[in-house]
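Consider a protein example.
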Amino acid sequence: MNERINQLARQCFAITDDGRFDYANRYIVERFAELILRDVDKIINELYHVMPLEQAAVLLTLDENIKEHFYGV
């Protein structure tokens, strides 16, 4: 998982009394974030195929920005 998704996952955990994160459910949170990103990618891809070509370029840029932000691609 990339660093941005890890940062978001860490924000979902309660901080213990000694200031550390509780990582008991880290895998679940990371998987949840990954599934959301896959759905976003699927929606963008579906829209791309039904939009006029002039407008589709905006979706490609959006898709590239999302992937770069979360995956570093």
Notes: The chain has three helices and no strands. The two ends are 12 Å apart (CA to CA). Residues 3-71 form one domain. The mean pLDDT is 80.
